[in-house]
Design brief:
heterodimer, A: alpha/beta, Rossmann fold, FAD/NAD(P)-binding domain, 4 domains, five-stranded parallel β-sheet, B: alpha/beta, Glutathione S-transferase Yfyf (Class Pi), Chain A, domain 2, 2 domains, four-stranded parallel β-sheet, 15 helices, about 10% strand, globular
Chain lengths: ~700, ~325
């Protein structure tokens, strides 16, 4: 195949050193020299930093002075600088889509140390871009209107913050929460480190504000089922699970909860340490105030008898016939603040959780010390009565451990210190041992809090705990839990007998984060956390336009960082709403009407319903405003008459030919071989040819 | 299923009970064993400590011989009931696969005897793993004729089978549960033996008796604390240490332990209805007969009472993860 560009293309090629990022591995001078000899290339240069203003000036002046009609920059990923160079083209009067970027950094120099191979690959990538750009046509970006409503998924402190920031700025928010109440993990906590202010006291006013805000539609006990559309125009389908309570009649008096004869262990809010009724509100300050009936455990639903709640309800609000409700609405942007799951400590059986009664998880202990928790704030053993005389707190359970999670969960050191403080405060005679690997206290007032604990008399033993066992060896160990650890500061194995063990479990991604990321069509990393657009410079945006992330869904973090991210996401969304329109890439499908056979195959395949069929002319047409440029119809068209702008067959085939420039056919014409040997002879040390 | 069988030296001498009971159990479960012809010692721990290459060559010879076994073309799987043999065989296979250099050296040594071994061509299995994974709890349950009702057993895995777990066969190398599940299938009452993967001391008895006796004492004490009638093992070394040195531990520490130490295959054989003599009962130092006399015809009555409610005011106890392998219980 030979694809000739329509007019004679005058191409300028710029090979970036990126300091030493590219130049260390790729012989950039050689790539520039070589590409200068290729067809249609008028000028080829290499330069230290193409993204600098001097680098951009170079492109601009060449366009003006040498009459360039197409530009190729071989540098980093287009995610980094495509916009930069398109801007340079535009300033020089060239349509920005007459530009193509070859990624010779992430895809090449960073991927290998082999200089010869890297240089060879750079030539292939650049040649592909050169041949492709010859077929580019001028395009205009498409304006898209932004629906001013926003969907926030997750009603923890991150989602609450985002929702309130946007609502207070005057924009409407749909806040969807899976549990019966908003509040998230923060509502379960007693005190917050390092200031020790009461978690509920600072959280509940915000929860109330969400519940009463005219700009917030709160959908609790609900889950997002379907997400359609794109930035500015998402259509959201939410399943509002049946509460079996008529919200219009319910006053939240709590009589149903009081009269319900059945209680079950509450594995969610009480972390398994306490019980709740089958009709319940997770906690007294729940927002909304309406209870839910736990259908799986309800005696009426199981056996068709009981109805105690219904009999006693003064407003007749109990409705056993209620069904799930499907709600659909439109939003312009989405913020995912779905939070974290606590690492399941049973996965480390040598620590005994689930086997040894007096081993507790951190969340269990959090509920235990909470005045509103199952023990009323008393620190007791599993029997509910005995106060422990000694408590061991084991750090890094599931974190910093290649068998489970390699990352540091960031908050465990600090909450472990808080636990130690609370034990000292409530049981002044108890000994407290912290078993840690390193104390990580980076934050305002955090290190000071650690010092305070050192003075309070907590024992700090540095070493990863090998096991927690009830197998006593010596008389002093009988009836105790023994923590076996290598004390790495004195270089000795130690056995510390204690009454109570608290496992400071790490934070992990939600168990269903992968499904959620697929639902919203955005990325999720190896650990299941949502991937930000840039780890440093764009931590709340994602690679999907119009979808933002905040809080622990992005990675473990403490409350201040979570709140900062929640507010940051709100600011990003507010910015877009304020603009009113965004310019979208004009990457859209187009049907050549005169060639269309009217078979209508594309009509049903289009996931965005963007193709209409004209009965009168018997042809299909793409509605440009709805098309997302996914390419499904382009591939499916049996007549090959749908082309995707900026991804035409000619552009792609030319690029492939360019990438394969060094594949020569040998004698029998069957076996293509790659000719790398030849190029290694040309490899030299880089010489910087300043233009 | 047909497997290659590598008994190792101990099963021919001190652990004859293991050998005999393994064959009884295998027959009942339809496992066919073909002993590797002309096998030699695996080198135990000493050989590797003194000259690693010679150790690898010694084990490599067994692997080479096993690779030549035909086994009706049912895949080349070699079963080693002894923990040390199992570890050495899988270790040699693992390191030969990891290091072509080592594989070449071992093979040049084997060439002197006209042999060679391609790493990965034999899959080394432990007997417990074969019974739990290939046969499954269901099939085992079908063979049970005389359940071990009322017998409290402490499952003792020792260290070598579960760690380092080169083949990732264990549910949890630090706290395995597969033998616990197997013994429950036999009807026994399985105690949650906290030192189940602690070391028995190995050959420490020959090096520092003081140290060895303390290690053995800890294991016996924990079993006694849990009121176990029998310690169940899968390793000839562990069995020897706990059984043959029990008297000495008693003398040394002024204790009075009488806990018989049996192989899991012996208990399987008994549950399958074999006579004590058939499965080698009576070869042990600490007489197992008084403990085995506790086996009842009916399931103990107190099993139901255990599910009673916790005392009023007590906090709920978390449940355990259920991740038993095998064909279900």
């Amino acid at each position: 195949m030979n694809h000739k560009p329509m007019e004679e293309a005058r191409i300028g090629v710029y090979v970036c050193h990126c300091g030493t990022n590219i130049a260390k591995t790729v012989d950039v001078a050689e790539v520039a020299r070589w590409v200068g000899e290729q067809e249609n290339v008028v000028v080829a240069r290499d330069y230290k930093f193409m993204c600098s203003s001097l680098g951009q000036d170079l492109i601009e002046s060449d366009i003006k002075e040498r009459g360039l009609t197409r530009i190729v920059v071989a540098a980093c990923s287009p995610h980094m600088h495509e916009k930069t160079f398109r801007g340079a083209c535009q300033r020089a009067g060239l349509n920005p889509y007459m530009f193509e970027m070859a990624n010779i950094r992430e895809h090449d120099s960073w991927a290998t140390d082999d200089r010869a191979a890297a240089t060879q690959k750079a030539k292939a990538l650049v040649e592909g871009a050169v041949r492709r750009v010859a077929h580019h046509t001028p395009l205009e970006p498409l304006p898209v209107e932004i629906n001013p409503n926003t969907l926030v998924v997750g009603g923890g402190i991150a989602g609450i913050t985002t929702a309130l920031e946007l609502a207070n700025a005057g924009y409407h928010v749909y806040l969807v929460e899976r549990e019966p109440s908003i509040g998230g993990h923060m509502a379960q906590l007693d005190k917050t480190f390092p200031t020790l202010d009461c978690s509920a006291c600072i959280l509940t006013p915000k929860m109330v504000e969400v519940g009463q805000h005219p700009n917030i539609t709160l959908l609790s006990y609900s889950e997002v089922e379907k997400v359609e559309g794109y930035i500015g125009n998402f259509t959201i389908t939410v399943r509002k699970k049946a509460r079996y309570i008529n919200e219009e009649l319910c006053t939240g008096c709590g009589i149903c909860e009081e009269k319900c004869p059945k209680r079950v262990v509450d594995h969610v809010f009480e972390a398994g340490l306490g019980y709740r009724k089958v009709v319940y509100r997770p906690f007294p300050q729940a927002v909304p105030k309406y209870p839910v009936i736990d259908r799986e455990n309800c005696t009426y639903f199981l056996r068709g008898k009981c109805r105690a709640c219904q009999i006693f309800c003064p407003t007749k609000a109990i409705d056993f016939e209620q069904e799930d409700e499907i709600i659909t609405f439109q939003v312009g942007n989405i913020v995912l603040a779905t939070g974290y799951d606590l690492f399941d400590a049973r996965r480390i059986p040598q620590y005994g959780y689930g086997r040894l009664a007096n081993v507790f998880t951190s969340m269990e202990f959090e509920r235990m010390v909470n005045a509103a928790g199952p023990t009323g704030g008393k620190i007791v053993l599993r029997d509910g009565v005995t106060e422990p005389k000694s408590v061991a707190i084991i750090h890094c359970v599931g974190s910093r451990d290649k068998n489970y999670h390699e990352y540091c969960s960031k908050v465990c050191c600090m909450y472990s210190l808080k636990f130690a403080h609370l034990v000292h405060e409530r049981l002044p005679d108890a000994e407290v041992y912290n078993f840690y690997i390193d104390i990580r206290a980076p934050g305002k007032g955090y290190e000071e809090f650690y010092h305070r604990l050192l003075h309070e008399g907590t024992h700090f033993i540095r070493g990863r705990v090998a096991e927690v066992t009830d197998a006593a060896r010596q008389p002093g160990e009988e009836g105790k839990l023994i923590v076996q650890v290598e004390d790495t500061l004195i270089g000795k194995q130690r056995r510390i007998p204690v009454d109570m063990v608290i496992l400071s479990a790490g934070l992990e991604a939600r168990h269903d984060s992968r499904e959620v990321s697929q639902l919203f069509k955005m990325g999720c990393d190896f650990d299941g956390f949502f991937v930000e657009r840039h780890p440093k410079l764009d931590p709340v945006a994602t690679m999907t336009e119009g979808i933002f992330i905040a809080g622990c869904a992005q990675g473990p973090k403490d409350i201040p960082d979570t709140v900062a991210q929640g507010a940051a996401a709100a600011a990003r969304v507010a910015g877009l709403i304020h603009l009113g329109t965004v310019m979208m890439e004009p990457v859209r499908a187009y049907i050549h009407e005169e060639l269309c056979s009217g078979c209508r195959i594309c009509n049903t395949l289009c996931p965005y319903n963007a193709i209409v069929f004209h009965e009168d002319r018997q042809v299909s047409e793409v509605i440009t405003a709805l098309c997302q440029g996914c390419g499904t119809c382009v591939a499916a068209c049996p007549s090959g008459v749908i082309s995707g702008a900026h991804f035409t067959n000619e552009q792609i085939m030319s690029q492939i030919e360019g990438v394969l420039w060094d594949v020569r056919r040998n004698g029998n014409g069957k076996q293509p071989t790659v000719n790398i040997q030849q190029s290694t002879a040309n490899v030299q040390q880089p010489t910087v040819n300043e233009p | 299923m047909k497997y290659g069988y590598y008994p190792g030296c101990s099963l021919e001498k001190n652990a004859r009970a293991y050998h005999e009971s393994a064959l009884v159990v295998a027959k009942r479960l339809g496992i066919e064993f073909e002993e590797t012809p002309d096998w030699n010692c695996c080198g135990a721990t000493e050989y590797f400590a003194i000259n690693a290459l010679a150790g690898y060559a010694l084990v490599g010879r067994n692997l080479a011989l096993a690779a030549r076994q035909k086994l009706n073309g049912q895949g080349n799987q070699l079963v080693a009931p002894c923990s040390a043999c199992f570890l050495n065989l899988s270790k040699t296979d693992h390191y030969m696969a990891e290091s072509p250099e080592l594989a070449e050296k071992v093979n040049s040594a084997l060439a002197a005897g006209g042999l060679s071994y391609e790493p990965g061509s034999v899959r080394v299995r432990h007997l417990l793993d074969v019974i739990v994974d290939d046969i499954g709890y269901m099939t085992v349950a079908e063979q049970v004729r005389k359940p071990l009702y009322g017998l409290r057993v402490a499952p003792y895995y020792g260290c070598l089978v579960v760690r380092p777990d080169y083949q990732h066969i264990h549910d949890e190398p630090e706290y395995p549960l597969c033998m616990d599940g197997l013994l429950k299938v036999l009807g026994a009452e399985v105690v949650d033996y906290p030192v189940k993967t602690h070391c028995c001391g190995g050959h420490m008895t020959q090096i520092s008796e003081e140290t060895a006796l303390e290690m053995i004492r800890r294991l016996l004490k924990s079993a006694a604390d849990y009121r176990a009638d029998v310690i169940v093992t899968l390793c000839p070394m562990c069995q020897l240490n706990l059984d043959a040195y029990q008297e000495q531990v008693n003398k040394h520490f002024g204790a009075d332990y009488h806990i018989p130490v049996l192989y899991f295959t012996q208990l399987m054989g008994l549950a399958f209805g074999a006579s004590p003599k058939e499965v080698g009962i009576g070869k042990e130092f600490v007489d197992a007969r008084p403990a085995l006399a506790k086996i009842q015809e009916e399931p103990p009555q107190n099993a139901k009472q255990k599910r009673s409610r916790p005392p009023k005011g007590a906090l709920p106890m978390p449940s355990m993860l259920s991740h038993h392998k095998g064909g279900g219980q």
